[in-house]
Amino acid sequence: MAPARVQPRPERRRHVTTLLVNWMDGDRAAMDELLPLVYDELRRLARRQMAGESKRHVLQPTALVNEAFLRLVDIHQIQWRNRAHFFAMAARLMRRILVEHARARAFQKRGGGAVHVTFDENVMTPADMSPGLLALDDALEALGLVHERKARVVELRYFGGLSVEETGAVLEVSAETVMRDWKFAKTWLLRELSRQPKRRA
Question: pLDDT of 42-93, one tens digit each?
Fold first, then answer.
């Protein structure tokens, strides 16, 4: 089981939210102050995204954090709501970066068989993906077309490592709704993955 996360103190969460709002309002100094406060959490997200990847992977956690942060800086007119919203967006960008790299280098092994994915976020990381990442990304995109919020729950919890409460805060729904969506999405994605044809490099 994964070690318990150390939750930031309420005043730290509020400070991060204040800096995000100031950054959104054009205060460049706020971004400079924000990075040291969120860097360790971004590194944790990056390590989760890349767990099980080859040490020779062109991206390492630090590079993934840096690329994701640069993309965050380039996002304009986003209405940052709170700290959880920021990390949810960071997780989404990290996922997109890894998928882009996987597609660019034909990540899937030739002749790979059925995809085996388990959705216990305490024991399964997104990078346990031989051949999972691209197949899971395709399935998640398909889920999003018919159940957008449920796809977001998977993205936030599975890729972003957000708690039920944090996920609910980002999506502005109750913890009970998050858990119902999570249960539905797991069943839907596992069924979709089992139907996918073999992928070749």
Answer: 888 887 777 655 555 556 778 888 888 888 877 766 778 788 888 888 888 8
Q: Report which residue type is found at 76.
A: H
48 contacts 122 by C-beta, under 8 angstroms:
no
Q: How far apart are CA 174 and CA 167, in angstroms?
A: 9
Structure tokens at 74: 């380039």
Torsion of CA 92, 193, 109, 119, to 10 degrees: 60
Q: pTM value?
A: 0.67
- Report CA-CA distances (Å) from 137 to 100, 141, 174: 11, 6, 26
Query: Distance (Å, rounded) from C-alpha 70 to C-alpha 75?
Result: 9
- Which residues neighbour 5 within 8 Å (Cβ) at sequence distance 6 or greater? 161, 163
Distance CA 61, CA 177 (A): 32
Highest mean pLDDT among 18-27, 69-78, 141-150: 141-150
Of 5-9, 18-22, 101-105, 173-177, least confident by mean pLDDT is 5-9
Integer Cα distance of 26 and 69 in angstroms: 16
Max CA distance (Å), the chain? 52
Are residues 140 and 154 in contact, defined by beta-carbon separation less than 8 angstroms? yes
Phi, psi of 92 (to 5 degrees): -60, -45
> Rounded distance, CA 5 to CA 8, Å?
9
